[in-house]
Amino acid sequence: MPANPNREPLAVPYRRRAFTAVLAAAIGVLALVLSGSAPALAVADGTPVEEGHYRFAVKLTMTNIPRPDGSHYNSGCSGALIAPRWIITAGHCFHDVNRTPVSGPVPYSTTATIGRTDDADTNGHVIDVIEDYQAPAGDIAIAKLASPVRDIAPLLPATSAPADGEILRITGWGSLSDVNPKPASHLQTGQVKVVAVSDTVVGVVGYLPKPTTSGCLYDSGAPYFVEAPHRAPRLVSLESNGPACPHALTETTARVDLIVGWIFQTIAGHR
Q1: What's the CA gap between 195 and 177, in Å, rounded?
Q2: Domain assignment present for 45
Q3: How many CB atoms lie within 10 A of CB 199?
Q4: Above pLDDT 90, what percent of the chain?
Q5: Between 186 and 29, where is the model more confident?
Q6: Residues 176 and 105 in one domain
Q7: Average pLDDT score over the chain
Q8: pLDDT digits (tens, 9 = 90+) for 116-167
Q9: I need a labelling partner for 26 at 20 to 30 A (CA). Which of 50, 55, 72, 174 fits?
């Protein structure tokens, strides 16, 4: 493990990187709210996403982030659209000057690029992020957009934990390597395998295209989701932290199924 496994040097990138029948009924309502209507390849050792795929993927760009010494820096995270005016990402992507996660008006200028696979594209949306709310469990936050996105299907959350051995896909805008890291200019993807599930965490290891396929710097909040034939993908977890990338070790991701009820309530309460 590297000396700083959370991969959050002061000057650069973020990486840190059950329900009852009543809740099950609420999830049906949630699906309608999140979709906006009634009742889809920068991941280290990944592959570029083809145009038009995984349009729910979000690139977050943060500027003028304060340090305790009074200086400032820029950074970024990854995430996913989960409702017309809401995205989800890692909780540590929004923090105060002491790097403590915070809720409320975003603590520094943040924009969300949604529906693009390359920085050079002119399609999709670039929208200000105006508020964020820290989840009650796990390294997760949801954030409100200044205006809704109506032409992209959201990535809806799973309502149960993944099984050991299950294959998930990640999409992210992070660096391709820890060496001279910078956000990717093209959305990347890869597949991972679930190797551990705990109270708030899903541990994963690289699967395809390589055993070293892994999240990297600036991938904090990148979605891990399950794909199945004839079904919409479902969000399982979010990138939180891990070893220097690329690597073949276990990556730590934050479980989403535990907070689906909270997501529903928060969105409904902050329209």
Answers
A1: 23
A2: no
A3: 8
A4: 82
A5: 186
A6: no
A7: 88
A8: 999 999 999 999 999 999 999 999 999 999 999 999 999 999 999 999 999 9
A9: 55
Q: Are residues 234 and 210 in the same domain?
A: yes
Pick 6 or 54 by higher pLDDT. Answer: 54
Q: Do the Cβ atoms of 254 and 237 come closer than 8 Å?
A: yes
Residues 205 and 252 in one domain: yes
Q: Are residues 164 and 76 in the same domain?
A: no
The CATH number of whichever domain residue 85 belongs to comes to 2.40.10.10
| φ and ψ of 53, to 5 deg | -95, 150
Tell me the whole-structure pTM to 2 decimals: 0.87
- CA dist 158 to 24, 88, 162, Å? 11, 13, 9
Structure tokens at 36: 């906006």
Lowest mean pLDDT among 41-55, 177-191, 206-220, 246-260: 41-55
Residues 116 and 32 in one domain: yes
Range 2-9 contact pairs with CB under 8 angstroms and sequence separation of 24 or more:
2/243, 2/244, 5/241, 5/242, 5/243, 6/241, 7/178, 7/217, 7/241, 7/242, 7/244, 8/92, 8/99
Same domain, 29 and 129: yes
On whether the CB atoms of residues 92 and 220 are closer than 8 A, the answer is yes
Q: What is the CA radius of gyration of the chain?
A: 17
Residue 185 has pLDDT above 90, yes or no: yes
| Residue-number span of the structural domain to which 125 is assigned | 21-39+55-154+259-269
Same domain flag for 182 and 246 = yes
Is 30 a domain residue?
Answer: yes
CA distances from 240 to 53, 145, 204, 215 (A): 23, 22, 11, 9
CB atoms within 10 A of CB 234: 19
- pLDDT given for residue 195 in this prediction: 98
188: which strand partners? 48, 172
Per the CB < 8 A criterion, the answer to whether 217 and 12 are in contact is yes
